[in-house]
Design brief:
The structure holds 2 protein chains of 2 kinds.
Chain A: H1 2-7, H2 13-41, H3 44-51, H4 54-87, H5 93-99, H6 102-105, H7 108-118, H8 126-131, H9 140-150, H10 153-165, H11 168-176, H12 181-210, H13 213-219, H14 229-238, H15 242-277
Helix pairs in contact in A: 2-15, 4-9, 4-10, 4-12, 7-9, 7-13, 9-13, 10-12, 11-12, 12-15, 14-15
Chain B: H1 9-37, H2 41-49, H3 52-85, H4 91-103, H5 106-117, H6 124-129, H7 138-148, H8 152-164, H9 167-174, H10 179-208, H11 211-216, H12 227-236, H13 240-269
Helix pairs in contact in B: 1-13, 2-13, 3-7, 3-8, 3-10, 3-12, 5-7, 8-10, 9-10, 10-13, 12-13
The chains are: A mainly alpha, B mainly alpha.
């Protein structure tokens, strides 16, 4: 016991390591390993045939394309909200701040039900849009709206704390030197928040790639037109085509892993930026 | 926050734009739920909620949360203690591992469990030989819920415990406290609000999980249908009012979640 203390000052190393490893193994590592074994067992040619089939390629195009548009929209909306919430004081600010979290708190199936109802041809929004020839339900526009809604908070919550930390001195110096408000924002403030902003956009993109509940309600789910990767996996499972499901799930897992690495790198960049500017 | 009371036109424009967009994309969607749930009157609303399949789904959803949230609190505290109080090999890997479930599509979460416990899965044949059925049962729902919410409590605790440091705990030990006393009287009071915050987020996700649960539950009405699955089936049966009535219970939880979250965040800053 005394020797253990000398290695680790605080107690509980063995206990917390044991609990953590048990949980990680049973809940996370074992299921992931089971899927990797399934993918590994099918052979390269079979795997390639599944992931490069026309239907899969169309599903990637629709999923990644819609997620890209959704994260750009959320980048703009998130930046606006973060700016307004940190820079101005106005009645209802705290209410607006809390409301931003709604898409995280609301189950995705409920979000899907709401959106398909709002944008149906008799819905509150749909009747105006269809009068102008815009159809949202059962088109890619619906997928984009569902992805955008479910990932609204990411950019706001990534940018907000950094924007609060931006030094007032820097802005005042820029203004004293004759910069306009827009120049101050574009040349002084935006570069400071850029890593956090990009991290927020990547998180929003990653969430949109995996979004399922909200999208299936509104997408119409036509192969090649409005079929996302998650749904194609689900269809393969219902057809008992487990190889097909495993291969596509592996592609989504890789995409998730890549976005995780990217956000980690962006966060490290932001931390360096903060340290340097101190 | 600007100190000068006079607002520039740009400031007015930005605040107005933020309010209009938030009303269109956040407030109206919330209002739609209650407007549609109540559109056939309060009597019909109550009848829709008390419909046996919906009532059963509510019960199953609550049961799942009651089991998953405490487990994730205990594991989250252990993980946070481990990675913030000790340096060891594989620490970074551990932090990345715990984040994977939250980064991946919920459908993939369901699929990996199917390939572990399903009939065609890694342990499936062995389980079948022992006559144990895991897939399409409540146990499977609980397991995938644990998976998708794995990092939620630890994620809130790790930055906080890193920032607080170990001085208080070391002082308690040097004054003769044992490990449990130190944890109970020193560590826990410092992190209790963050634990609650993580628990609130875990609960919201568990109650609302759709993709992963729809793969492993089998959606058997009155048996393995959680609320989000029940909502989908009501919608597919063209019972829109019933679907919105069932949704209103989850929307109520969602509103409670964001109110609690805002309150806990303010508490954390003080």
């Amino acid at each position: 016991m005394a020797r253990k203390r000398s290695k680790h000052l605080l107690p509980g190393f063995g206990l917390t390591l044991g609990v953590s490893m048990l949980y990680l193994t049973i809940i996370i590592a074992l299921p992931l390993a089971a899927m990797l074994l399934k993918v590994g067992g099918m052979g390269w040619e079979e795997f390639w045939r599944i992931v490069s089939s026309n239907r899969s390629l169309a599903a990637y195009r629709i999923t990644f394309g819609s997620a890209l548009v959704a994260s750009v929209l959320n980048g703009l909306f998130g930046l606006l909200l973060a700016w307004v919430l940190t820079r101005y004081s106005f009645p209802g600010r705290r209410f607006l701040d809390a409301l931003v979290d709604l898409p995280f708190a609301l189950p995705t199936a409920v979000a899907g039900l709401i959106l398909v109802t709002l944008f149906s041809n008799t819905g509150w929004y749909g009747q105006f849009l269809e009068g102008n020839g815009i159809k949202v339900n059962y088109t890619q526009a619906g997928i984009i709206i569902a992805m955008t809604f479910t990932s609204i908070p990411f950019v706001v919550r990534a940018v907000q704390p950094v924007l609060e930390e931006v030094q007032v001195e820097l802005e005042e110096a820029a203004k004293t030197l004759g910069a306009t408000d827009w120049q101050t924002f574009a040349r002084v403030i935006f570069p400071t928040i850029l890593p956090a902003f990009m991290a927020g956009c990547v998180l929003s993109f990653a969430r949109s790639l995996g979004e399922f509940g909200a999208v299936v309600f509104i997408a119409g789910n036509l192969p090649g037109l409005t079929e996302i990767v998650s749904l194609l996996i689900f269809i393969r499972l219902e057809e008992y085509n487990y190889e097909g499901a495993a291969a596509l799930a592996f592609v989504l897992l890789l995409a998730a892993f890549a976005t995780l690495m990217l956000t980690n790198a962006l966060q490290a960049w932001q931390n360096r930026y903060v340290l340097r500017s101190r | 926050m600007q100190s000068n009371p006079a607002r520039s036109p740009a400031e007015y424009a930005l605040i107005s734009l933020a309010f209009i967009l938030s009303a269109l994309f956040l407030l109206v969607p919330l209002a739609v739920i209650f407007a549609f749930a109540l559109r056939e009157g309060v009597g019909q609303y109550i009848a829709n909620i008390l419909e046996p399949a919906t009532l059963h789904a509510i019960g199953l959803t609550v049961l799942t949360a009651i089991i998953v949230v405490p487990i994730n609190i205990v594991v989250g505290v252990c993980l946070a203690w481990l990675v913030t109080r000790f340096q060891f090999r594989g620490r970074e890997l551990l932090i990345t591992m715990i984040e994977i479930p939250a980064a991946v599509s919920p459908i993939v979460a369901g699929v990996v469990y199917l390939f572990l416990y399903g009939g065609q899965g890694l342990l499936g044949p062995a389980l079948q030989a022992m006559n144990i059925q895991l897939m399409f049962t409540v146990t499977a729902i609980i397991l995938v819920s644990l998976f998708v919410t794995a990092p939620f409590v630890a994620r809130e605790l790790i930055p906080l415990m890193q920032q607080q440091g170990t001085e208080d705990e070391e002082a308690a030990l040097s004054l003769g406290a044992n490990g449990w006393q130190m944890f109970w009287f020193v560590t826990l009071p410092n992190i209790r609000w963050a634990i609650l915050y993580g628990a609130v987020l875990t609960n919201a996700r568990v109650m609302g999980e759709f993709g992963a649960v729809s793969v492993v539950s089998g959606s058997i009405r009155g048996q393995t249908n959680t609320l989000p699955l029940q909502i989908t089936q009501l919608f597919n049966d063209f019972n829109v009012t019933g679907a919105f009535a069932a949704s209103s219970t989850l929307a109520f939880i969602a509103v409670l979640t964001i109110v609690l979250k805002a309150a806990l965040e303010r508490h954390g800053r003080q």
